Amino acid sequence: MTRAADDARILVIDDEPANLALVAAVLAREGYASVETVPDPRHAIDRYLAFRPDLVLLDLMMPGIDGYALLDRLRRLAVADDPVPIMVLTADTSIEARRRALALGARDIVTKPFDVFELGLRIANLVELRLLLERLYLAGKGTGGRGDDSGAC
């Protein structure tokens, strides 16, 4: 049985309450009901492990923690057969920041301030990708990892 996109679990990590509220409002408007917000990045790993999200939205510039190190740690927690996309939300518009985030495994980068409609579309794209990968993984598991053996083209 496949899950619907609006059943997706989304974890939002940002130290700014206003940003958390705005992103939560965008997610609610888009129909996502299972949303966890983490205002203290020191608790991000624990919340990730407990919540098992389908998508992570991560601010990179937070006090007391290196957002890039957190990105790398989150990506490493997502095992190869269960990849969880991470979208970076950042006020840093430099090409170096974008390249570094992508090199560490971010699947998308949105710069602040962001257009709420564009953010909603980008989130929908990553949720769709996540659910498609999940279906592919489950289909491969059911055939011993060989895919469809029916011979049909």
Task: Explain what the structure shows.
- The model is unreliable at 149-153 (pLDDT under 50).
- The relative contact order is 0.16.
- The protein is 44% helix and 18% strand.
- It is built from five helices and seven strands; from the N terminus they run βαβαβββαβαβα.
- The chain has a single domain (5-142), classed as Response regulator (Rossmann fold).
- Helix 2 (44-51) runs parallel beside helix 3 (67-77).
- Strand 1 (9-13), helix 1 and strand 2 form a beta-alpha-beta unit.
- Strands 2-1-3-6-7 form a five-stranded parallel sheet, with helices on both faces. Strands 4-5 form a two-stranded antiparallel sheet.
Summarize the SSE layout with pairings:
Blueprint: E1 9-13, H1 17-29, E2 34-38, H2 44-51, E3 55-59, E4 61-62, E5 65-66, H3 67-77, E6 86-90, H4 95-103, E7 108-111, H5 116-142
Parallel strand pairs: 1-2, 1-3, 3-6, 6-7
Antiparallel strand pairs: 4-5
Helix pairs in contact: 2-3
Short précis:
The chain is α/β, with parallel strands linked by helices and 153 residues long. Helices cover 44% and strands 18% of the residues. The chain contains five helices and seven strands.
User: What pattern of helices and strands is seen along the backbone?
Assistant: EHEHEEEHEHEH
Radius of gyration: 16 Å
Number of strands: 7
Return the structural class. alpha/beta
Q: Which architecture would the CATH scheme give at its second level?
A: 3-Layer(aba) Sandwich
Low-confidence stretches: 149-153
CATH topology: Rossmann fold
Estimate the global geometry from the Cα principal axes.
globular
